[in-house]
Amino acid sequence: MEIKVVQDTKSIESDILVASMFENEKTVIELANKYAVEQDNFKGKFGETYLLPTYGKEVYKKVLILGLGKKEEFNPNKMREAVAKAIKKAMQMEAKKVAFSLDGIEFDYSEQFAMGAFIADYSFDKYKSEKKDNKVQEVYVQANADTVKKAEKIAAAMTFARNLANEPAQFATPTELANIACDFGLDTVVYGKEECEKMGMGAFLAVAKGSSQEPKFIHMKYQVDNPKKRIAIIGKGITFDSGGLDIKPPSSMLTMKDDMSAAACVLGIMSIIREFHPQVEVHGIIAACENMPGCSAYKPGDILTAKNGKTIEVDNTDAEGRLTLADALCYACELGVDEVIDLATLTGACMVALGTNAAGIMGNDETLVQNLISTAQRNGERFWELPLWEEYFDSLKSDIADMKNTGSRWGGASTAGVFLQKFVKDVKWAHIDIAGVAFLEKPQKEFIKGATGAGVRTLLNYILEQ
Fold first, then answer.
1. Which of 154, 174, 296, 403 has its CA at a distance of 20 to 30 angstroms from the CA of residue 22?
2. How far apart are CA 439 and CA 369, in angstroms?
3. Residues 9, 142: contact at Cβ < 8 Å?
4. Which among 209, 236, 322, 404 is annotated as catalytic?
């Protein structure tokens, strides 16, 4: 899809002209007012559409009226969702050229318009022998061209992340993630098993023991002279999670290829960061491995030693993500960065608390947490702060080690956060649990079923705003 910025969209020869309409108002298209509003009593409620042909009387073949709802309630996030709905409707009609006439909107909708169009345009059909040819090829809109280009790059990073998270585990192996990371032209180093052993990454390596796939610890670095800030972003990289010896039931294992969605987010960001030229040093870190129940798998009751020397009693092998993140956090804190942000599809408890509409966030610096929350809100994602009280550590206490890797079933997302905090030292840190938002079981708002590229929009924009 190509978005073309023009001054007069109504003069474009197109298959469909999408005309916006606020609830109980009229459009600037008289034909639409005559038939939709006056004759058929179309109200323009949010998300409603009305289609009518022009019978060759206009340069556009059809008019699609797009309801924007009440004007006082309309905002950039609703803009994105409404545009996505219109693009999907156009795809159903196999329209190739679509123009938008957006009137009466009192804010700059350029970025969220483009994001909505590109998100709606997404499909993952790599493995289908027959592919649909229903994509919209050209979209015309009156908007800010530079902002649209920015959104196009962010959307490309999201598409990169979504494709990777939608890939089966047979493709998206730790080695493949490492190979992909090495293609970005960044200063990248990949550590293998022996190198990780020398660094003392006993928690990460324990998770990898049951798999025939070699673990890979990936460190990508974007550098600039005299950076305004140094940030490390860590993405959980479990390329398949069987649960290990505490094996998951089949229904819970079916989508566990998505347990590297956070790693896909980090790779998506690092794939395009050079095109933005931010004056921020950014480290992308992934501890990639599979969690499998092979003959060498780590076992409940094992004692692991993390990179910082802390010991962990394995209470449940299916709480593996926090073990890989523990060593990754230790590594990141040694880089001399100002901030560390980790993302992970970490706990079912976060999904129970927040559902599929928000990610959980917590951290040791309230300013960092609130900045990430507000950045997410502006860019179409929702982060909800969860507590990080020390009392949550009580259920992680072990009789024979410094801590266990799981505790009480109550407050599980915060308990996991308190566990991770034990591996953070002398740096501002935020943890984002994207378990509920990374992979959808059914379509939701502008997204189709499958991977969403959670975190890409927020973290890219956060980096660019520094």
1. 154
2. 23
3. yes
4. 322
Q: Is the pLDDT at 31 greater than 90, yes or no? A: no
Helix (H) or strand (E) holding 110: helix 110-120
DSSP 249-262: PHHHHTTGGGGGHH
- Catalytic site residue from 248, 310, 378, 382: 248
**Separation CA 300–CA 297 (nearest Å):** 10
> Does residue 28 contact residue 65 with C-beta atoms inside 8 Å?
no
pLDDT digits (tens, 9 = 90+) for 140-165: 999 999 999 999 999 999 999 999 99
Q: Say yes or no to pLDDT of 55 above 90.
A: no
> Is 70 in the active site?
no
Question: What burial letters (b/e) apply to 244-256, b meaning 16+ CB within 10 Å?
Answer: bbbbeeeeeeebb
457 assigned to active site = no
Cα–Cα distance measured from residue 51 to residue 90, given in angstroms and rounded to the nearest whole number: 10
C-alpha distances out from residue 186 to 7, 180, 456, 466, Å: 39, 11, 18, 20
Asked whether residue 132 carries a pLDDT value surpassing 90, the answer given is no
What average pLDDT is seen over the chain?
Answer: 96
Give residue 324's pLDDT band: very low, low, confident or very high (50, 70, 90).
Answer: very high
Among the listed residues 277, 290, 234, 266, the one whose alpha carbon sits nearest the alpha carbon of residue 160? 266
Across the beta sheet with 403-404, the strand order is 303-305, 311-313, 403-404
Q: Check: CATH 3.40.50.1970 for 2-143? A: no
Residue 440 bridge partners (DSSP): 450
What does pTM read for this prediction? 0.96
From the list 424, 421, 197, 429, the residue with the least C-alpha distance to 304 is 197
Reported as a single tens digit per residue, the pLDDT across 171-183 is 999 999 999 999 9
- CATH architecture assignment, domain 154-464: 3-Layer(aba) Sandwich (3.40)
Q: Residue ranges per domain, the chain?
A: 2-143, 154-464
- Strands (E) across 298-392 are located at 303-305, 311-313, 339-344, 359-363, 383-385
Q: What is the secondary structure of 189-207 as a DSSP string?
A: EEE-HHHHHHTT-HHHHHH
